[in-house]
Design goal:
Length: 700
């Protein structure tokens, strides 16, 4: 007997229930109904002595069907299904051929026995969705594995190797032996006492009480801004303090507490946003993908070397070009040093270091790029330099090679037009450090061919990046928006707020660092050169980053110089507040006629974050981003915007677009010409607010 998502057959007295819901065996309503029907059929069949639950797919189960969280008829709920499994009068064995996560692991925990293939991983990642395991995971897992490990798995959501979970699995076997092992186990257990997980007794001890106390303190510190992690601790603790049935009720209560929070809405929004970013509706599904077997990188500096590592890490050979041998040697040495540091930390073996280095070759001649399928330039951010590189590439690269620029701000259309093959040109904007940061802005020019775009999107997954397609404008999405954020932070200093205070307030808002710490780390000279290239766009505002300009012109370019907005002791990255910055701010404010005053924390957040959101609205209106959620993905992965707020556009939807319009208009009016230049609300923002709509509902 079978349906589309569940199959069950009887073999030698054992009912084999197979999960077959593509692509990942999400535990949708159809799957839940199917499991209960199959269980009941097995229980009512006198020829069946035992039951095996397994999977026909590569995964056992990825867990709940998140799309069902929005409501509807969800009966039977997963806890009801698991009650049938755990209450079975015939032994039930879970056979894990692949990963079991979330509800998938909870299903396995409700079975009486579990077997798995060796080297498998399982986990309860619900905390990443702003919730906690809601089908008994917080009550059953501590009854089967060490309490410390159960708590860690649930609070962090991290996948765990099955060999570390002593007590959870009866045996770990080869894939070929999995099903026969599970069937034999079910047969051997028939007629014997069934070890239901719910019957395992737990009790609180002083040592466990201390463990929970310490974990709560650590979690509160590490998970700032997140709601669910501390609730996970509460739920697991309940397994040791109250009976199982009451523990399930407490887990359910805490689950619903989490579900109703803005953090859960934000984290679930981001879950879907990341997946939506991979979709490009304007490109036909049958568009072919170009074969990328060899990559060229122009520039062996920090950025070029980091980009090269991404390809070597996945087994693709890379040719790195530097015009000077000394620069080339230095770049290759830096890559080796990065790999060696990873090996020292146990992340790579020495064999892996050598294997990856063997994929990297250096050259000082463009002629050695004639056989690459993709070339990425990572040279100085000046248009004339970029054009010279692309003109050279146009002459030596084979037909069909993709020519990509790592530009962070420049016009990809203009770069493309200096070649004879503009259809093959695209922007691939990696974020620094390129071998670490997950974001890749994929910049389509007006000329870029569909197969080049699709190849780039697919390639981003190959090199383990989150690729987001954007259009051409100054700074694309990420840097265009960060420019207004940085501008306003600098203006606030002119008005009398210390950089240290602004950084603390933005950190407390949820970002990993404030704008001035970030600026010093990146190098203040980078922003300075960008402003010099756009002087005609900012000349109307003499206050525009004027303090930062003075610092750069005095050699205070940031951490790399030991002084920027902050001071740094030699060998330290710890910023030290420099009161002379406020003296500069006072002098500049007096020169410009800017009043210094007391400014509230709320105003600081509004003035840094709301213009950023407003710029996002303009980007959306102009079609530079496909959807508002793409902007959120860029800001979470590229700039550390707190995922528990979902990204700037989700945050705006959560607090209400009308509020943002109201405050933008207030600052527009309150600040005279400055306000009129920089705080005029986006027409799209106003339109959506007037209609009581959201960015998420907007269709470009």
């Amino acid at each position: 007997m079978s349906n589309n998502v569940i199959k069950h057959t009887v073999q030698d007295g054992v009912c084999i229930i197979s999960l077959a819901s593509k692509p990942v065996n999400a535990l949708s309503k159809a799957v839940r109904v199917g499991v209960i029907e199959a269980m009941n059929a097995a229980l009512n069949d006198d020829s069946v002595v035992g039951i095996v639950i397994c999977s026909e797919l590569a995964l056992f189960s990825a867990g709940a069907d998140i799309s069902e969280f929005s409501g509807g008829d969800l009966s039977p709920m997963l806890p009801e299904v698991l009650a049938v499994v755990e209450g079975s009068t015939k032994p039930v064995v879970a056979a894990l051929n692949g990963g079991a996560f979330g509800g998938g692991l909870e299903l396995a925990l409700a079975c009486h026995y579990r077997v798995s293939v060796a080297k498998n991983k399982v986990g309860l990642p619900e905390v990443h969705l702003g919730i906690l395991p809601g089908a008994g995971g917080t009550q059953r897992l501590p009854r089967l594995v060490a309490p410390e490990l159960a708590l860690q798995m649930i609070v962090t959501g991290a996948p765990t190797k099955v060999e570390l979970l002593q007590g959870l699995f009866t045996s770990l076997v080869s894939p070929e032996a999995l099903l026969s092992t599970a069937v034999n186990l079910a047969k051997d257990a028939a007629g014997k006492n069934i070890p239901a997980t719910c019957n395992v007794a737990l009790e609180m001890t002083p040592q466990l009480e201390e463990m929970f106390s310490q974990t709560s303190a650590q979690t509160a510190k590490q998970a700032r801004g997140f709601f669910a992690p501390l609730k996970c601790v509460e739920a697991v603790k309940a397994a040791f303090t109250i009976p199982f049935d009451e523990g399930l009720k407490e887990e359910g209560r805490l689950f619903m507490q989490c579900m109703k929070t803005p953090q859960a809405r934000a984290q679930q929004h981001f879950f879907f946003a990341e997946r939506a970013a991979a979709s490009v509706p304007s490109i036909p599904k049958d568009t072919p993908v170009r074969d990328i077997k060899k990559v060229g990188i122009i520039g062996g500096g920090t950025m070029g070397g980091g980009i090269a590592m991404n390809f070597a890490n996945v087994g693709l050979p890379v040719v790195i070009l530097e015009l000077e041998q000394a620069a080339l040697d230095k770049g290759l040495a830096l890559i080796r040093k990065n790999y060696e540091n990873s090996a020292k930390k146990g992340k790579l073996t020495q064999e892996q270091v050598e294997q990856r280095m063997s994929l990297l070759t250096g050259t000082t001649s463009y002629d050695d790029l004639g056989d690459v399928d993709l070339v990425i330039e990572a040279v100085f951010e000046k248009m004339e330099v970029k054009k010279a590189v692309f003109e050279a590439l146009d002459k030596v690269c084979k037909p069909g090679a993709i020519l990509a620029s790592n530009t962070s701000t420049l016009d990809v259309d203009e770069i493309a037009e200096c070649t004879s093959r503009p259809q093959d040109v695209i922007g691939l904007h990696f974020f620094s450090p390129a071998n670490v940061m997950k974001l890749l802005e994929i910049v389509r020019s007006k000329h870029t061919a569909n197969d080049v775009i699709k190849t780039s999107m697919v390639l981003s997954k190959t090199i383990r990046k989150v690729g987001v397609l954007v259009g051409v404008c100054f700074g694309f999405v990420g840097n265009r928006m960060i420019e207004v954020y940085s501008r306003e932070a600098n203006r606030l200093v002119l008005e009398g707020v210390s950089p240290e205070r602004i950084d603390k307030i933005i950190y407390d808002f949820g970002l990993p660092m404030g704008p001035f710490t970030m600026g010093d780390m990146a190098g203040l000279d980078i922003g300075y050169f960008v402003r010099q290239s756009r002087i005609e766009f900012i000349a109307h505002d003499p206050s525009y980053c004027t303090i930062a300009d003075e610092l750069v012109e005095a050699g205070r370019v940031g951490l790399k110089a030991g002084k920027g907005v902050y001071l740094y002791e030699k060998g330290s990255r710890q910023p030290i507040f420099d009161p002379s910055i406020m003296d500069i701010a006072k002098r500049k404010a007096d020169e410009l006629g800017i009043e210094q005053r007391d400014i509230s924390d709320e105003e600081i957040v509004e003035r840094c974050i709301y213009p950023l959101i407003n710029e996002g609205a303009n980007i959306l209106m102009e079609g530079i981003a496909q959807r508002s959620s793409d902007i959120d993905v860029i800001y979470v992965y590229g700039y550390g915007f707190p995922v528990h707020k979902g990204g700037p556009m989700q945050y705006a939807d959560e607090i209400g677009l009308s509020k943002i319009v109201e405050r933008m208009k207030y600052y527009e009016s309150a600040f005279g010409d400055y306000g009129k230049h920089w705080f005029t609300p986006s027409p799209l923002l106003v339109e959506l607010a007037n209609k009581n709509e959201t960015f998420a509902s907007h269709k470009a």
